[in-house]
Design goal:
Layout lengths: L12 H9 L1 H9 L5 E5 L2 E7 L2 H8 L6 E2 L7 H4 L9 H11 L5 H5 L2 H14 L12 E3 H18 L6 H14 L2 H5 L11 H31 L16 H7 L10 H32 L3 H8 L7 H4 L3 H13 L5 E6 L3 E3 L2 E3 L4 E5 H4 L40 H18 L2 E3 L1 H5 L5 E4 L2 E4 L4 E4 L2
Parallel strand pairs: 2-8
Antiparallel strand pairs: 1-2, 3-5, 4-12, 5-8, 6-7, 9-12, 10-11
The chain binds protoporphyrin IX containing FE.
Protoporphyrin IX containing FE binds next to helix 13 and helix 18.
């Protein structure tokens, strides 16, 4: 087959408005014209997307040395150049190999109690903006979910020794709110205006978060030197052994150098932000569907006693598992997965030049009717009797950059939902229970429902 050429549609206000109004819908409409399909982004290079499992397979199986994250990158101001999300080559491989053990198997299962306690604490004491857990009180699901997932990621990163959650909660919330959608999509706005304006507000919020992180780093360095636990083998007895901060402090590159303070901040900021916002959005959508689809909550609640309150067992409950999978299918919180091509490459029958960016539109892949009949319906039972391929279902991306926190996120979703459904009874507010489903809009690193999802606690 001869190679085809590709070009994105000319970016216009019309395209911008359509994408901003309903990003998933915009990608679906572009995909309907044929696969792969090109999309332009203002201020960034165009992207050639696939939404098919064949395209995903070729993308995730491409030679690793051919791929790198696209730069410039919309999220670079949030996570920084040293972030695992943006690094490439040997550096990416080394950092990933070092951090991975803290986010797998037994270490994640070891966080089961932390996850359960974080959820119970939120029910007992949670009182963030828009959240009242008293019977009859009104709960903003995203605010409550964020409070829980922030506690969990702080425990994974810094260990369970101290609780500076309140300080982090304020700093992280301001940091995320300051990175507004215009700053995300229009780099031209990223300049100071004499210390005023959205960019200056964002930089100040980032500095505040970094000050908190650096104070934790300094505390940990002190403890490690006092306990002579500088190998990070976890025998320090201070409640952190082998957490993500320990592992980052242990990193030594080939020339013997450790991470600088700036690099430490960027890696830690990445883990904190990537590790809680995505999971919180998914929890919010799962709660929405559990309480909207007739009889679904009751079916899941009927399944819970089999786990006897044990987080590891809760994570294996079939219907709860299916609800989490179906939520990630219908509302993938990271809607696009991107790779820049380093050398000329033929992909999907098209010659891709070095420096061009290709990607997977996750929502389009998850909406293929041949794989997912009635794809717009929330129907968790479809996951009960089938094994899915990683090229048909890819909420965590794939290949050598597949989400590092996927095991933690999957475990956390199930344990939080099981704990919430056991502890409280919620009712979705009438407008949401009966009205149209909220749309998905891009927000920071993840997407979110375009309007608040509110519940009332009834028991
Ligand atoms: C429901 C929750 C989550 C979803 C849907 C999600 C999704 C994703 C996706 C799609 C990617 C890009 C993968 C690719 O390029 O192929 C990614 C990367 C990443 N995620 Fe997650 N994520 C979630 C939770 C987490 C958690 C809890 C953590 C941290 C503990 C985390 C840390 C990361 C990191 C560090 C990367 C960069 C990996 C790399 O480039 O090597 N994520 N995530």
């Amino acid at each position: 087959m001869s190679a085809q050429r590709w070009a994105p549609p000319r970016w216009s206000l019309l395209h911008g408005a359509a994408a901003g109004h309903d990003f998933e819908g915009y990608l679906r409409r572009r995909a309907a014209r044929g696969d792969p399909f090109a999309v332009g982004f203002p201020g960034f290079p165009p992207v050639l997307f696939t939404g098919t499992s064949e395209g995903a397979r070729e993308l995730f199986r491409a030679p690793v040395e051919l791929l790198e994250p696209p730069r410039p990158n919309p999220i670079e101001p949030m996570v920084g150049a040293a972030s695992l999300i943006l690094s490439s080559g040997p550096r990416h491989r080394a950092d990933r190999a070092l951090l991975a053990p803290a986010l797998h198997g037994a270490r994640v299962r070891g966080l089961g109690e932390v996850i359960r306690e974080a959820t119970l604490l939120e029910i007992e004491k949670g009182c963030g903006p828009g959240v009242s857990w008293q019977v009859g009180g009104r709960i903003d699901a995203l605010a409550a979910s964020r409070a829980i997932t922030l506690r969990v990621i702080l425990a994974a990163v810094f260990g369970t020794g101290g609780d500076r959650r309140a300080e982090y909660a304020g700093a992280v919330t301001d940091f995320l709110a300051a990175f507004t959608t215009p700053l995300l999509v229009a780099p031209v706005l990223r300049r100071g205006m004499g210390g005023f304006g959205p960019w200056a507000r964002f930089v100040a919020a980032r500095e505040r978060l970094d000050r908190l992180i650096l104070a934790d780093v300094a505390r940990r360095r002190r403890v490690r030197s006092e306990t002579d636990d500088s190998t990070g083998d976890g025998v320090g007895g201070v409640g952190h052994g082998g957490d993500l901060l320990d592992l980052l402090l242990d990193i030594r590159y080939d020339d013997g150098s450790p991470l600088t303070d700036t690099e430490l901040c960027e890696q830690l900021r990445t883990l904190i932000v990537a590790g809680h916002e995505t999971t919180a959005t998914t929890l919010t959508w799962a709660l929405y569907h559990l309480h909207r689809e007739r009889g679904l909550r009751d079916r899941v609640v009927a399944e819970l006693p089999a786990a006897s309150g044990d987080p590891a067992e809760q994570a294996r409950l079939p219907l709860l598992d299916a609800v989490c999978q179906e939520t990630l299918r219908l509302h993938p919180p990271v809607p696009i997965v991107l790779r820049r091509i380093r050398q000329p490459w033929r992909w999907r029958g098209i010659d891709i030049a070095a420096g061009q960016t290709i990607g997977l539109a996750v929502g389009v892949l998850h909406g293929q009717p041949a794989t997912w009949p009635a794809p717009r319906l929330f129907h968790p039972d479809r996951f009960l009797d089938r094994k899915v391929s990683p090229f048909e279902f890819a909420p965590f991306g794939g290949g050598h950059r597949r989400c590092l926190g996927a095991t933690l996120a999957e475990y956390e979703l199930r344990v939080v939902l099981a704990t919430l459904l056991t502890g409280v009874r919620l009712r979705l507010e009438p407008g949401l229970a009966l009205g149209a489903r909220p749309r998905t809009v891009p927000r920071n690193l993840a997407t979110a429902p375009n309007r608040a999802i509110h519940f009332t606690r009834t028991q």
